[in-house]
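Q: Structure tokens for this one, please.
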Amino acid sequence: NVEELAQKLGELEQNWNKCRQDTSALDARYQELEKKQQLLSQSLAQKEDVIHQVDEAKRESENNMQSQMETREQKIKELEDAVAKLDETRRMLEINLLAQLESREKKIKMQEETISELGNQKQYVG
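A: Here is the predicted structure, written as tokens:
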């Protein structure tokens, strides 16, 4: 009986030592996993920060592009307006030049008629 108890006590001590070893191994594994979880959390936070920065840069880029497009459209409109004004000015100058040419032609015809009349009068007088 004593031998059986001694044998069982030996088995219990072995089991106890095995449990302590297993607990120690599990605790070490738990600590290792906890460190990995912290590293993964830090990595995730960094990646989320990078994503946020990229999104912000993308938004700024889109806003800048939109602003540049609006500025270009405004400049195009200003240039189109300036071209339209130049066309109108050119048209008015052409009309003015045409009127001056017609006026000069009339003056030349009048002078030619006057010269012709003077020539006729000179022949008539002469």
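A few notes: The mean pLDDT is 96. The helical segments are 2-125.
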